[in-house]
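Hey, resending since the last one bounced:
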Amino acid sequence: MQGPWEERDGVLRYRTRGGVEIYRLPMRLFPELDGYVYLILTDSHRILVDAGSGLPESWEDLQRGLEIVRARYGCPVDLSSLTAIVITHGHIDHFGGLTFVRQQSPAPVFAHELDRRVLVNYPERLITAAQELRHFLSQAGVSPERQAALLNLYLSMKTMFQSTSVEGLLGDGELLFGILRVHHTPGHCPGQVCIQVDEVLLTSDHVLAHTTPHQAPERITRYTGLGHYLESLRRVAAIPGIALAFGGHEDPILDPYGRIAAIEAFHHQRLERVLEICQEPRTIVEISRALFGRQYGYGVLLALLEAGAHVEYLYDRGYLQVANLDQLEKEPEVPIRYRRL
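The structure tokens again:
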């Protein structure tokens, strides 16, 4: 990589054109998921962007990353010296570590208002989301036994977080602390934000270098859904002067605008594929299998939600219709079958 950055012991430092230092701290978030939190430093501010998952290994990696910043880069920073904590969105691999961070840091927590409820009333979020997910799985064609197993997977490792306060809200277009430009990008999550620091964009899970961020139907959580996501992609593509993007996972994005165009094209291709599959009436379970083949474990749930998001997008816009209306009228809990109009 070429540019004003260096990497020591796995911690990358980037200095923006305006002199702001951004440190990328690697961590293991879940047994099969790696990612990053970011430390933003100026003369006046020490801001942590995201907090990891809260699993012991994630917490240890955060402490190790801060130690590398101190020992290898000579910057005397620790959790107690933070001036703010910014949460990019309400998914536990990004905010779960707050349970530990707040034990050592008095810094205020900032989040978008659409994800505030997740942090301040987490048990409610778990219960309501699980109810909506159960209804979705039923209509998708998942058997009752399989529904129970998938719900257990969904809730696993999510019960360790304790609700916390949110002291500040992130407003779209706001220049936080005079250095962080907030861009609200709902879709992957209701309160998803991208954070712009000079020519750098911290994209969290909105734009990733290699994979297309996971989608879920808006019927489960408002302000998610593929429609919101594609609209947010176009909004980010219209931000001028972004030379580099750092995601919450995967590699730095050296061509952010090209990557955004590729993700948008990918989803349009998937939409066309769903229309092809639905030449004959199909349930979401059947559509998911046609799109992704046989999945295992949590991959089953991810595939169903991804398929459901694309079906919802097409149905809402009149490209699909319900093919078994007569059956649904008599049996409301029967799986819905979709057919191309």
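The chain has two domains: 5-116+163-268, 132-154+278-340.

Sorry for the duplicate.
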